[in-house]
Amino acid sequence: MPVTKITERLSVMGQPAVEDFRDLKAQGFATVVNARPDHEDQAQPGTHAEEQAAHDAGLSYVYIPVTTPTITQADVRAFQKAVNEAQGPVVAHCKSGTRALMLHAIGEALDGRMRTDDVVAFGRDHGFDIVAAANWLTKDAARRPVVEAFFDAHTSSVQYVVSDPATNKCAIIDGVLDFDEKSGATATRNADAILAYISDRKLSVEWILDTHPHADHFSAASYLKQRTGAPTAIGERVVDVQRLWKVIYNWPELATDGSQWDRLFAHGDTFKVGSIDAKVMFSPGHTLASVTYVIGDAAFVHDTVFMPDGGTARADFPGADPRMLWHSIQAILELPEDTRLFTGHDYQPNGRAPRWESTIAAQKQANPHLAGITEEAFVALRTKRDRTLPMPKLILHALQVNVRAGRLPEPEANGKRYLKFPLDALDGAAW
Ligand SMILES: N[C@@H](CCC(=O)N[C@@H](CS)C(=O)NCC(=O)O)C(=O)O
Ligand SMILES: [Fe+2]
Q1: In the predicted model, what is the mean pLDDT of residues 76-99?
Q2: pLDDT tens-digit readout, 24-33
Q3: From its phi and psi, is residue 97 left (phi > 0), alpha (psi between -120 and 50) or beta?
Q4: CATH number of the domain that 51 lies in?
Q5: Considering 117, 141, 165, which residue would you say is the last residue of a domain?
Q6: In terms of DSSP bridges, do strands 291-295 and 298-302 run parallel, antiparallel, or are they unpaired?
Q7: How many domains does the structure of the chain reveal?
Q8: Are strands 31-34 and 291-295 parallel, antiparallel or unpaired?
Q9: pLDDT at 252
């Protein structure tokens, strides 16, 4: 069971047997990272058996399954997080240890602690061929735009800063305003992390975008506008969503003309992020107003398709329609095969680390809601699954804020803000 020490905190190794886990604990490791998808070969224990063995041996366990051609920045960040947050030394494995070392080396290079030119020699010095890591970095550097994701574990949402390295201009997509429904507290932790990134990189914000009026969290658009002065925008069909919820909330004062945003995009509208061309596609189905932003080679598809192992978004909210969602997804799948797709949620199937980036090719090949499925079969499976899903816990909280571009309700005479809930207005009670 050879283990190769890389740093004080990190070692890598080939596939251990479950019996080896106690020995790893005895060697002083605190955490095992498994970077290997299940079912690569017969002899492999698999994540459930490894997690159990780690637990029995008193080790923490993190599952970050990757294959060499499909490593994404999310995997690299998840790997760094596992190493940084471990209570002691970490041993990471895949089949041979190569992928584990690649995740480390890519992270070091992305954060400026290693040069791309030194990656191959670094691997060789430890007995590994990680040319693929150097190639990953070269390809990443050539990409426009730069996409940085911010995962909010409370709502499983992915927020993005999309920037143009040539001009340092950027757009923020789907910022989250924190809300704790038990105490009623709001906070700006997510949005402030985004603003800190923007200020560190000396970016200037051109757009504050939402892909749709979210049903599971508050939008930070209004707060971000206050802090940056940049214009807010959303798809123009948000006015239909406003009309729908105006009735549900019995809210005569709600303006339903979209005037709460600085710009309402029509299907096919174009705009720029710095020097990069961006285009708006309507993608209704999950909500009436959903849009996809295609910025350079990156498409922000939010709640249409999730990661290939996560299927698709639900289509049972007021104004939602599974058939419409199917057609929206088909239009997205007509984008070039290597378009990078960035999703808006990741619910971490099988407890894997969060991921958010895929490609058209990967969706077509591996998403069980899409690959080899007809429209009728999709509508049937979506409808069946949606019947089993409880309403998002914040849907009634969120819509009254999000149909006003993330503005909280105006304070009452005592200076406090209040939310209002209709009773017995939605189906989908989970008793
Ligand atoms: N448990 C989450 C569920 C949120 C939810 O329903 N998310 C939507 C996107 S806004 C979805 O498509 N979920 C798909 C699924 O849960 O399978 C909550 O209560 O907030
Ligand atoms: Fe959503």
Answers
A1: 97
A2: 999 999 999 9
A3: left
A4: 3.90.190.10
A5: 141
A6: antiparallel
A7: 2
A8: unpaired
A9: 97
> In this model, does residue 427 exceed pLDDT 90?
no
In the predicted model, is pLDDT for residue 143 greater than 80?
no
DSSP summary character for residue 143: -
| Residue 9, domain extent | 3-141
302 and 377 in a common domain? yes
Residue 429 lies in a domain: no
For residues 157 and 236, state if they share a domain: yes
Nearest CA to ligand 1 atom 18: 392
Average pLDDT (152-181) is 97
Who's near 417: CB < 8 A, 6+ residues apart? 408, 409, 410, 411
Ligand nearest to the CA of 289: 2
Nearest CA-CA partner of 113 in 229, 245, 6:
6
Spatial separation of the C-alpha atoms in residues 197 and 161, rounded to whole Å: 9
Distance CA 172, CA 193 (A): 12
Pocket probe for ligand 1: among 314, 316, 356, the residue whose CB has the most ligand atoms within 8 Å is 314
Q: Check residues 166 and 115 and name the one with the higher pLDDT.
A: 115
Omega before 336 cis (within 30°)?
no
CA of 314, closest atom in ligand 1: 12
Determine which of 351-360, 398-407, 420-429 has the lowest per-residue pLDDT on average. Answer: 420-429
